[in-house]
Amino acid sequence: MTNETGQYRQHAPPAVRHPAFAIGSLVFGIVALLTSVVLAGMLFGVVGLALGIIYRQAPGPRNAMALAGVTFSSMAIVIAFVLIYQHYGAVTERARLREEYMTAVEHWVGEPGPDVTLPTADDGEIRLGEIEGQPALLTFWTPECAVCLRTKSQMNRLAGEYSEDVTLVGVTPEKPEQVDSFLDEHEFEYPIASAAHVELPPPYEEALHLPITIALDADGVIRDASAGGKHYEDLMELAFGEDG
Predict the structure, then answer these.
(1) In sequence order, what are the residues at sequence separation of 6 or more whose Cβ sits closer than 8 angstroms to the Cβ of residue 89?
(2) Is residue 181 part of a domain?
């Protein structure tokens, strides 16, 4: 009985390529390539690559689907890796610039906010040096900044509840016409100024390229600054201090 079993195992036909692995590799490879701009693309690529390798290592006739799946999957993995590396580098660079800015802006605390006149999207203008009589928050943002848009909703809430107690101004490097187009899609309850054609003095110039909120007191003196997105409580503290 043992000999018969051994002989059966010895003469058992080897595993052959199953077309499902080739089809799966091709499908996952295509999906991976289409979604390579996000992390899911790399995951799909790994699955497609594994299925293709399993198929091509098994004995039996081959077809081009597995090869295409392996190729697409490999391309997707490389693209996703490069994009992730670039994103990590950009995030690291922004963090470094933010840290350097926050260190530099400390020297401005207690100094009058620089005077500069900026055009607004409604053909008006705002003179930052004339913001006095009540606390003010200057938010520096760009349309592609996700945390800036989240902060915007909190700024809108603050504007709705304390419009007579605090001055809110948004400053962006976009041109007035671009700002106007952006405002057609996003509601702002406070004025937005464009610095596209204006040379901003420090510390405002450096703030343009980071999500920064600068707080001025009722005399127009820089009282505080904070980087990154802001919750409502953060804005209240920046605007009114601990007593807000």
Answers:
(1) none
(2) yes
Structural domain including 19 reads 2-102
Tens-place pLDDT, residues 163-210: 889 999 988 888 877 777 787 788 888 888 888 888 888 888 777 777
For residue 239 the two structure tokens come to: 């605007």
Amino acid, single-letter form, for residue 224: D
d(CA 126, CA 42): 47
- How many residues are there in the chain? 244
Q: Which of 72, 47, 38, 234 is nearest to 153 (CA)?
A: 234
Radius of gyration of the chain (CA): 29
Q: Is residue 107 part of a domain?
A: no
Burial call 25-48: b when 16+ CB within 10 Å, e when fewer: bbbbbbbbbebbeeeebbbbbbbb
Cβ proximity of 225 and 105 under 8 Å: yes
pTM: 0.62
The number of folded domains in the chain is 2
β-sheet bridge partners, residue 168: 137
